[in-house]
Amino acid sequence: MRCLIRGLLFTLAVATASLAASQPQTGPQSGPHISARLVAETNNPAPASTTSIAIAMTPAAHWHGYWSNGGDAGFGMQVRWTLPRGVTIGEIAYPVPDTLVIAGLMNHVFERPYALIAPLRIDPSLAPGTPLTISGEATWLACTTEICVPERGTLTINLVAGDGRIAPSQRAQFDRWRSLLPQPISAIVRYQMVGRQLRIAIPLPAPLVIADPHLFVDTARINQPGGEQRFSRVGEVLVIETVAGDDAANARQFSGLLRLGGTRGLSFVAVPGDVPAAGTPFVVTSAAMPYAPEAAAAAASSSFDLAAFAYTLFGAIIGGLILNIMPCVFPILSLKALTLARAGGDERSVRAEGFAYTAGAVFTCMALGAILLLLRSGGEALGWAFQLQRPESVVLLIILMAAIAANLAGLFAFGNLSFAITPLAPALGEGSGAKSSFATGALAAFIATPCTGPFLGAALGATLTLPPWAALPIFGGLGLGLALPFLALAMVPALRSRLPRPGAWMVTFQRWLALPMLLTALALIWLLSRQVGNMGWLIGVNALLATLLLGWWAGRLQKHGKQASVAIFVMAAMIVPLALALPDSDARRDNAAPQSPNGADGARPWSGSSLAAALDAGQPVFVYFTADWCVTCKVNEASSINRDETAASFAAANVTVLVADWTSADPAITAELARHGRNSVPLYLWYPAGSRDPEVLPQILTPSMLIDRAGRSDASR
Q1: Contact (CB, 8 A) for 190 and 270
Q2: pTM here?
Q3: Are strands 183-184 and 264-272 parallel, antiparallel or unpaired?
Q4: Which tens digit of pLDDT belongs to each residue from 319-340?
Q5: How far is CA 296 from the centre of its chain?
Q6: CA distance 274 to 148
Q7: What is the C-alpha to C-alpha distance for residues 557 and 527, in angstroms, rounded to an integer?
Q8: Fewest CB atoms less than 10 Å from the CB: which of 241, 244, 266, 550?
């Protein structure tokens, strides 16, 4: 009886749709139950480019539309495109659907506004100014829990070939729509038939906590949509068991979607293969909270893994401790050196400074982590060190580094303090060693956190799989590890006794420490130019010179016994006009310095399509994720990647090199990092020839790591 009802409903829907399609309709597309409109990400797509086009669907109250495979009944959007010469449209991508059971039938539906996105490709032969009219005859099904009405409309939009400029509002809209699309799994997904049971093995990280999973199969008749679905864990693999459909036994492969929770999921293509026996049954939580690709942030306390949390926290502390010897933290180490060298006085005040410094570092790391989690929960595709992806933050750091350099050089002093180790003290209050130490710890964390080293990448990546109350202590552990050396000196008098005695040498040492701060400011100006183009040089150099000039003026006032508060206030307030002078997001993309890879010969920019093409070619692939503000990345590139012997070994083994530049925020790169359990750079992936399962290399590279792998690939050919 159930199969009969299903067949009758489907036949009725198709027949009604065919009847509706036979009636001529022109003019603006509009359905009484689900409205549809065609939207382009840019009104002036550039020749030889690929942009996005979307069909925005808005159901009326109590109505719903359907996913590509509607389930037991229903069907998705069907479009017959009419396109101008030189324009093609790719396959439509659907967001993650909801499930709706009506009369015992499973439906894959959208009960909220949603958008179907497709790539729009413009041929290089089209000249700028060419009018491009995109039109499509679309048919879709609108239903309530009681009735279904096929609807039809002509979707039309007029574009003009141009420079590809995207308005900020259009970019924001498409970013929101793209954030609801499932993220593809590059690892091999296998399925196996056991009688009438369909068993699927999906590689997923073991610490991953998933809320409200559901399997959707895009290919019809592979499974029974309303059949029972059982989920279990076998190490790094999620095993799904469900009821097979009539065509499952003869299928060579099929595509599907795993909902992890809420409105996000993972898409995959499954091929025949061995599937392990079911393992630990999966406990489905009732909450469905936002998550990153392959990283759901929803966990019930009953499923919280305390041992895994403790291990991750320990990794964050050790990773933060190692940051003290990383080259990107050297400017902060110079500030610490003066602080530790003068560590003296009574034991109580020294310990107070140690605790205050630690509190500043921990507080800043937790604050940055909280902001990151809040932004990600709002749909933003961001990762660790997101602050350096914003030009406004870079301008702030240029002013801050220049002010510290002027202070260290003796141009002026903050309040009555004799050493430039408390650059934020005026904002926190003068005359308190504890407040000064808190400010120094906060500054150390703010500048040092963009770097990652051993242990830290995996620890920070784990914060994407933990609930917020468990993720924040991981960020705090990073700050604790960063502050541990100073805290140890403050708490252990025997360690302080080994420090050099204070003396006149400290003044000379202080003057020399102005140099690394100036070099840091110059490096930040270069970074700003990479983000916004030549305007970055102009704004950055002016910020540096103006800060040094204000520092000199403040020093002149202080020498005459006057307060320098006005000069210091103007120095801090410069961030406002300079930030306003920065180009908007569209101008930044147009004017930014070309991000040409400077790695091994023949390196190309990374993208999902470029990686897929390289893997399809069957050659070894090396992918490295980098950023201009990541000193660790640049050290690895100089010492291991950009070397003649590395380039020669790659050329001999025909290695494809792809560079993912994360200098500015890039949702695609952020998603790919999260897919590998990371939210920071560097990340290095090595794909052996013919394999789609990458080897994750250490975050500190050596030339031999790359040359040996290339050599093995060359020898195996």
Answers
A1: yes
A2: 0.51
A3: parallel
A4: 888 777 764 566 555 555 555 5
A5: 14
A6: 41
A7: 33
A8: 241
